[in-house]
Amino acid sequence: MGKATRNRWLRFFAVCGMLVSLFPVAGESQQAQTAESLLIGPGDMVHVQVFDTPELEEHARVTDAGELPLILGGNVKVAALTPEGAARAIEKVLLNGHYLLHPQVLVTVDEFVTQKVSVMGEVKAPGAYPINTPRSVLDVLTMAGGLTDLADRKIVIERHGTGEKVAYYFSNEPGVAIDTSVRVDPGDEVVVPRAGIVYVLGDVARPGGYTMTNNEARISVLELVARAGGTNHSAVPSHAKLIRKSGGGYVETPLPLSAMQKGKRADMQLQPADIVYVPFSYMRNFTLQASGIAASVGSAAVYKF
């Protein structure tokens, strides 16, 4: 293809691009905005085209300082810009340097150096996964094998380049999880923390730890006792204790579990790491101290919801 023909095609595509920007096709505007949200970073390979000036076309790699070396105009800062923003920055340099009267620049990224997304925390296969385009957080979590039984539903995505932290709540309801899904870009980091665990020990059917992985990510005293199969006949729920970690130690408070079970006292929400202790009888372990109860948490079985 000759230079003259090539230039005519470039002018044609430029006009088409302006028309599309003025009259976006339904359903394509959101996709375009998503693609443009990818930011240029150090090490990326960038393709610069200047309409009607093919001698200024170049493929160059962004320096560690985030600058792009131009054939004319020296270095221009493009890191943390979209390709559209980088094109406008280059146009400004060419205009202010009196190199061109009406520069029209097109910038595309040939290769993102950070074409991986890191998935860490409570997923079945944490690691770095290659992605060349933005993907939904659900897609990325699927690449990592999905959530573990101990995963918290409150997921955090850290944006590459800006450090912005985006929160995503992975609902147990499929429709909500899909409708509220957020974008993950190449270079981003996805962190899935461990869910909070609460413990019920003593004279219950299944003592142990229970993860707070229901759709509300919380649990009450009565819900916890019910998950543990309820209190045994030999238990003394009227003398139950709530043990909560505070600072470097534990604070023990009476817990009116019997009155809660009878509807005479309101149920209460628990915090992660709380311990509910139900005594066996008036004669057995009734005087067990908070520190001794807390010490048995390490050997407690952990159950998922």
CATH C-level class of the largest domain is Alpha Beta
Structural class estimated from helices and strands = alpha+beta
Tally of separate domains: 3
CATH architecture of the largest domain: 2-Layer Sandwich
Biggest pleated sheet: 6 strands, mixed
Low-confidence regions = 17-35
Radius of gyration: 30 Å
**Beginning-to-end CA distance, first to last residue:** 65 Å
CATH topology of the largest domain: wza like fold
Give the amount of beta strand, in percent.
25-35%
Helix content: 10-25%
In CATH terms, the superfamily of the largest domain is wza like domain
Shape: rod-shaped
User: What's the mean pLDDT score?
Assistant: 83
Record the strand order, biggest sheet. 16-15-17-13-14-18
Please write the string of helix (H) and strand (E) elements. Answer: HHEEEEHEEEEHEEHEEEEHEEHEHE
Give the number of DSSP strands.
18
Give an overview of the whole structure:
By secondary structure, the chain is α+β, with helices and mostly antiparallel strands. It folds into 3 domains: 3-111, 2-Layer Sandwich (wza like fold), CATH 3.30.1950; 116-192, Roll (Outer membrane lipoprotein wza fold like); 197-303, Outer membrane lipoprotein wza fold like. The protein is 24% helix and 27% strand. It contains 8 helices and 18 strands. The protein has helices at 3-22, 29-36, 83-96, 137-143, 174-179, 221-227, 257-261, 290-295; strands spanning 45-50, 58-61, 67-69, 75-77, 105-111, 116-121, 127-130, 135-136, 154-158, 165-169, 183-184, 189-192, 197-202, 208-211, 240-246, 249-255, 275-278, 302-303. The strands form 5 sheets. The chain has a 6-stranded mixed β-sheet with strand order 16-15-17-13-14-18. The longest helix is centred in the N-terminal third of the chain and has 20 residues, at 3-22. The protein is rod-shaped, with a radius of gyration of 30 Å. The chain starts with a helix and ends with a strand. Residues 17-35 have low confidence and may be disordered.
